[in-house]
Design a protein that fits this description.
With 71 residues, the chain is mainly alpha-helical. The chain has 3 helices and no strands. The two termini are 25 Å apart.
């Protein structure tokens, strides 16, 4: 169902840091866009995370998002 490419070595090597950057980006987005008071902004954040997960799953092997990138 996808391309099934192997996991890039940069994901394996720097996955921990990419996850940390993802968490920092989520916290920044929450404060910058006032997501505590805006359900629509929160929905955009959740939708963007789901779309990123789906696109990674489309190109790479199974569980690449969950194992290396999921914040």
């Amino acid at each position: 169902m996808g391309y099934g490419l192997k996991v890039p070595s940069c994901f394996r090597q720097y996955g921990f840091f990419l996850t940390g950057l993802g968490i920092i980006a989520i916290f920044w987005a929450e404060s910058a866009f006032g997501m505590l008071n805006s359900p629509s902004a929160t929905a955009v954040l959740v939708l963007s995370i789901v779309l990123l997960a789906m696109s990674v799953s489309l190109f790479y092997e199974r569980r690449t998002w969950c194992r290396y990138l999921c914040p």
